[in-house]
Amino acid sequence: MAHVKSKTIPISVFGNVLKLLDSAASKMKVDPALMEYIKQPRRSTIVKLPVLMDNGDFKMFTGYRVQHSIVRGPAKGGIRFHPNVSLDEVQALASWMTWKCSVAKIPFGGGKGGIICDPRKLSKKELERLTRRYTADLIDVFGPAVDIPAPDVGTNAQTMAWIMDTYSMHKGHTASSVVTGKPLEIGGSLGRVEATGRGVMFTIRECCQNIGMDLNGASVAVQGFGNVGSVAAMLLAEEGAVITYVSDQYGAIHNPDGIDIPKLMKHIEKRKKVVGFRGAKKCKQEEVLFSKVDILVPAALENQITKANVRKVRAKVIGEGANGPITPEADAILHKKGVTVIPDILCNAGGVIVSYFEWVQDNMGYFWEEAEVNRRLEIKMVEAYKDVQEMSHSEDVSLRLAAYMIAIKRVVAILELRGIYA
């Protein structure tokens, strides 16, 4: 997944989340003490993981698991394997999950995990040993009714299978609902892999209808052609959009007449990167973010559009496929410019919605057909978009502030009913 490197002091991702929460709270009547309570993670765990490498040596890794909130239900959130994982990032991602689940109206709180590593440099056996050790060290943190992991950057269905098996072996019984995003054979849900990208498409489609933009024929740039970006690009193309720019962590390509996404995906299966695809020309990665297109989908990592580069953005609509790709300062500038930004906690909520569906199916022991999963996902995404749009209109705020206002309101409402055990 491509990203733009900043030459400035690193931006605190969790600090960005706190700024957004403060901005939303300033538009609401929320007890300041209560606001402080719901802003901070309830638990942050750091584990040091000795892992036996293939050469016979032990290597130490650092892992994190943050539970931001369990007010609305079990903590829910992915596990990220990446060299740049940090506690600050994991806390931010866990917080985003709280607000994302609240906007989507699903009974989960927010959690997130990560291990500092480069999964591309580890063998499959090393990845398995690392994953199992991480799970074992957090065995009392995870649980189907407590904290439910899922895939994220650098992890996949196989990773979830290892977590489920390790947890199940320690507990003495198969616990399929301890993770989501699993292989279908062990309790995964149809439609889960495509869910986040499908949700991105649904919200962009709803946004275009709302602002009077015709999605059929609209030009689209997608930054980050991983699971989210590739599926969003494919589904947007099926809706008639023209995908003109695509990038991944290795490079970027451009075709003003449109990139054939199915052919590009076949190319990536063989070459593992977008560069070299015969149906488009190589271009600079930064061109993807700053190209003159109708719709931009940043689906890479955090802090891609900042105060330093935001004035180069020329898209009319931005659908945040990634978490936190736009800093608060840049977001305010885009709002003043009249750019419509569909915020991450709404735009990419499809993944956690279908994770919820998977958890429900595991607990029932009954599984839905893919069409049923997609139907239910569309209902939830459209409902969430309309809720946010109505709040944006009634309070005269951006979609982002509206989404946070709704999320905070729903968490506070539960807290007021439950009370605070002190």
Proportion of residues in β-strands: 15-25%
Topology order in helix (H) and strand (E) letters: HHEEEHEHEHHEHEEHEHEEHEHHHH
Using the alpha-carbon principal axes, give the shape: globular
Task: Provide mean pLDDT, rounded.
Answer: 94
In short:
The chain is of the alpha/beta class. Helix content is 44%, strand content 17%. The protein has 14 helices and 12 strands.
Task: Write a structural description.
By secondary structure, the protein is of the alpha/beta class. Among the domains are: 40-175, 3-Layer(aba) Sandwich (Rossmann fold); 195-347, NAD(P)-binding Rossmann-like Domain (Rossmann fold, 3-Layer(aba) Sandwich). Helix content is 44%, strand content 17%. The chain has 14 helices and twelve strands. It has helices at residues 13-25, 32-39, 87-103, 124-137, 157-171, 195-211, 227-238, 261-271, 286-290, 328-337, 344-347, 350-364, 370-395, 399-418; strands spanning 43-52, 58-69, 75-82, 109-116, 147-151, 219-223, 242-248, 251-254, 281-283, 295-298, 317-319, 340-342. The strands form two sheets. A seven-stranded mixed sheet has the order 9-8-7-6-10-11-12, sandwiched between helices. It has a five-stranded mixed sheet with strand order 1-2-4-3-5. The chain is globular and about 55 Å long.
Keywords:
422 residues, alpha/beta, Rossmann fold, seven-stranded mixed beta sheet, globular
What topology emerges from the helices and strands here?
Blueprint: H1 13-25, H2 32-39, E1 43-52, E2 58-69, E3 75-82, H3 87-103, E4 109-116, H4 124-137, E5 147-151, H5 157-171, H6 195-211, E6 219-223, H7 227-238, E7 242-248, E8 251-254, H8 261-271, E9 281-283, H9 286-290, E10 295-298, E11 317-319, H10 328-337, E12 340-342, H11 344-347, H12 350-364, H13 370-395, H14 399-418
Parallel strand pairs: 3-4, 3-5, 6-7, 6-10, 10-11, 11-12
Antiparallel strand pairs: 1-2, 2-4, 7-8, 8-9
